[in-house]
């Protein structure tokens, strides 16, 4: 998952398709799943690419470990992201623990 210099070596092909890179609209739509987008990118604000990459990597690793994304969009209207925004981590983890247990038939 990381090389000897701790560079992340993961890639997801879930949305892979041929894109015309000259078309600006293709860069806004379809390059990634929206749940991987840092809030700054989602709202077309300025952002630091390394921090946005770290955010996306965290989402990707969360999905690998828990099977489900932590939220669907990093915005206030997202039910699960709202838990994080309002420092209600216990509620956030309570939901994800139940979801994983149900998926694995552990309930």
Distance between the termini: 31 Å
Which regions contain 5 or more consecutive residues with pLDDT less than 50? none
How would you state the average pLDDT, rounded?
75
Structural class: mainly alpha
Biggest beta-sheet profile: none
Tally the structural domains: 1
**What percentage of amino acids are in beta strands?**
under 5%
Order of helices and strands: HHHHH
C-alpha geometry: flat
Return Rg in Å. Answer: 16 Å
Percent helix range = 40-55%
Query: How many β-strands, per DSSP?
Result: 0
Work out the helix count: 5
Q: Would you give an account of this structure?
A:
It is flat, with a radius of gyration of 16 Å. By secondary structure, the chain is mainly alpha-helical. The protein has 5 helices and no strands. The model has no long low-confidence stretch (mean pLDDT 75). Helices cover 46% and strands 0% of the residues. It has one domain.
